[in-house]
Amino acid sequence: MVGYFLKRMTAALPLLLGVNILTFALFFGINSPDDLAQIHLGSRSVTLDVLEDWKRAHGYDLPLFFNKSETGISFLTKTLFFQKSLKLFVFDFGLADNGRDMGAAIQERAGPSLALALPAFFLSMALNFLVAWVLVLFQNSLIEKLGNILCLFLMSISPLFFIIFGQYLAAGYFKWVPYSGYLDGFLGIKFLIVPVLMVIISNIGSGGRWYRGLFLEEVNKTYALYARAKGASPWTVLRRHITPNVLLPIFTSVVVLIPFLFMGNLLVESFFGIPGLGSYLLDALQDQDFAIVRVMVFLGSLLYIVGILLSDLAYVWADPRLRLR
Q: Domains of the chain, with CATH numbers?
């Protein structure tokens, strides 16, 4: 297992470096340091001295990849690529274009994002399993037909509708919870109930249908038929025999969701006023603070690659035959 982990790590690091180089090239290929200075100084006419002062204050006065005016290691380190991109690998995020410490902001906002994402993630998975179990146990019945219709109906509705309708119903009409906001600790639950419910409801349709498809692929396999032939009830076969085999492909789907657990949900955090990483990224896009956007893209890539690595390890743990590859 350790050897397999090291092998996967050696493949993941060049991938992350490649994504980092590509992100850097895209950002500075579209917007030069002069463009960034002009964006943040506003549309008013500014002199070259003012532009140079802004670039110098924000670290954008350096060459992109190679500093020909320096010797030794400074030839590589005193460059935009090293200062703005490679330092991210040691989690040195530096300052945003607005002058604020990005590391402190990310640490502060990670808590609200996790407070929203973790309950929504685990409750969604549990509910998706429950819906899939019901649809499989009552296969070819009226319950399955109605369940499929409901899932398709929920899949056809935009998540934005659930957010707006849930906010209006719970906060505006019944006045059960505040419209928006966030508090740390136990008092913050009242601000998270509706956002978490909206995330869960918007995922039931697609998640329940997909889990159902995975279960149906296993229902008529030999091991399931043999278990039923020995007298096991449909529920026992589904719970003890089929579900463990379905967990492997589900690990793959979880990988896609890992960045959202930490990065937050942009729409939900924005509409409900939750000061998480999702709203942090959205605010940066609106303010054209590309330093924050670059850092968030790097974190998203890192979390996705870590998720793939954990998924591979889960596969190897569940199926030892993969260790020989």
A: 2-90 (no CATH), 109-324 (1.10.3720.10)
Please give the DSSP secondary-structure letter assigned to residue 135. Answer: H
Token pair of 122, please?
């685990």
Q: Which structure tokens are listed for 92?
A: 């040195």
304-319: burial string, b at 16+ Cβ within 10 Å, e else: bbbbbbebbebebeee
Q: Which two tokens stand for residue 4?
A: 């397999």
What DSSP designation does 91 have? T
- Whole-prediction pTM value? 0.79
Mean pLDDT of the chain: 82
**Closest among 188, 174, 178, 159 to 267, alpha carbons compared:** 159
Residue 225: phi and psi, rounded to 5, are -65, -40
Task: Read off the pLDDT band of 231 (50, 70, 90).
Answer: confident
Average pLDDT of the residues in 306-321: 72
Residue 241 near residue 224, CB atoms below 8 Å: yes
